[in-house]
Design brief:
about 400 residues; alpha/beta; Aspartate Aminotransferase, domain 2; Aspartate Aminotransferase, domain 1; 2 domains; 7-stranded mixed beta sheet; 4-stranded antiparallel beta sheet
Length: about 400
């Protein structure tokens, strides 16, 4: 059996999305910017897709800018906002658990002379709201806080954060790549200025995304050379992918309650089964997306787990990455203060509406022998006197 539980990395393109995209590779291949009818009729399909994405986010079509994905959207929002302020504000704020597309963009600006503040999180992944309040000043150019964490699934109180930013006169951006299509989003009710989504995280195609830009928000384009996307993002539109994103947004909006409740039930079944069958297993994070389970298995190395699971046909992802020959826990788990012996053995299982009960039961069946095998050879397992050997000094958190 093959079981795909890595949907936070990428999701299967829905069959309905593939079908919707198909004509735009062949007979309907015109440039939507062309003035002739062959191009004009293509532009109408782009307009429909823009409306579909706007409906998913609870906003107007003219506030949607199509991009090449989440990373571009994040960079356009963050760098575009700072550049639009032309140096009038020199302070930028984000969290310690953002996706690299946001973290690295902020680090880039820090190297350009901006003062960077990163807000910490607690053991459950929740944001320290008091520190966030204290961090925002009249000199703050932008605040960026993800809607939901890609590793743990922890959902942040975006409405509360957005209102704080609005009250302080700070532009607020949220990376909603993991949240879109999984939980309701309504920009009519929440004063977010900029919001990023990505097609391949909600059963759309890769290489396409969208940035919500609230009317009145100043933004300097990062890709220039054309009039497309209201002057905010130059380049001929990727029509097949945009149409696919629109269809994926429509499907996500129509199934956001029913399908995700089914996913939540499967996720809870997986967690319960693994916690009961694998001693020392711990779920990381609270108040999470319905599809995400980040589970640490004490005294086990994450990459080895992934390799053994892959040999059994199970695809998941690890919370650790190999850097310079030494495994280091993810920056998210380190920010949460997860002990080394847990963070080192973290696995993210991320489900979709295409997963089944039989697949979940298969994982619950196969996981315990994998854990037992790895613990039997781990240098971090408990010694005979019951004491942990612990982590090497260079890797300790």
């Amino acid at each position: 059996m093959n079981v795909y539980l890595d949907n936070n990395a990428t999701s299967m393109t829905a069959p309905q999305v593939v079908e919707a995209m198909q004509p735009f590779w062949t007979e309907s291949f015109g440039n939507p910017s062309s003035i002739h009818s062959f191009g004009g009729k293509i532009g109408k399909h782009v307009a429909v897709a823009r409306q579909q994405v706007a409906a998913l986010l609870g906003t107007q079509a003219d506030e949607i800018v199509f991009t090449a994905g989440g990373s571009e959207g994040d960079n356009l929002a963050i760098k575009g906002t700072v550049e639009a302020l032309a140096g009038r504000k020199r302070h930028i704020v984000t969290t310690r658990v953002e996706h690299p597309a946001v973290r690295v963009a902020f680090q880039y600006l820090e190297k350009q002379g901006y003062r960077l503040t990163e807000i910490p999180v607690d053991r459950d992944g929740g944001l320290d709201f008091e520190q966030l309040q204290d961090a925002l000043t009249p000199d703050t150019a932008i605040l960026s806080v993800m809607w939901a964490n890609n590793e743990t699934g922890v959902v942040f109180p975006i409405e509360k954060i957005a209102q704080l930013a609005r009250n302080r006169g700070v532009v607020f951006h949220t990376d909603a790549v993991q949240a879109a299509g999984k939980i309701p989003i309504d920009m009519r009710k929440i004063p977010v200025d900029l919001l990023t989504i990505s097609g391949h995280k909600l059963h759309g195609p890769k290489g396409v995304g969208a940035l919500f830009v609230r009317k009145g928000t100043k933004l300097t384009p990062q890709i220039v050379g054309g009039h497309q996307e209201g002057g905010k993002r130059a380049g001929t539109e990727n029509v097949p992918a945009i149409v696919g994103l629109g269809k994926a947004a429509e499907l996500g909006l129509n199934s956001i309650t029913e399908k995700n409740e089914k996913v939540r039930i499967l996720r809870d079944r997986l967690e319960k089964g693994l916690l009961e069958s694998c001693k020392g297993a711990v779920v990381n994070g609270k108040n999470r997306l319905p599809n995400t389970a980040n589970i640490s298995f004490e005294f086990v190395e994450g990459e080895s787990m992934l390799l053994l699971l892959d040999s059994l046909g199970i695809a998941a992802s690890s919370g650790s990455a190999c850097t310079s020959g030494a495994l280091e826990p993810s920056h998210v788990l380190r920010a949460m203060g997860i002990p080394f012996t847990l963070a080192h053995g973290s696995i993210r299982f991320s489900l979709s509406r295409y997963n089944t009960e039989q697949e979940i039961d298969y994982v619950i069946e196969k996981m315990p022998p994998v854990i037992e095998r790895l613990r039997s050879i781990s240098p971090f397992t408990h010694s005979g006197d019951g004491q942990s050997w612990g982590a090497p000094p260079s890797c300790a958190t």
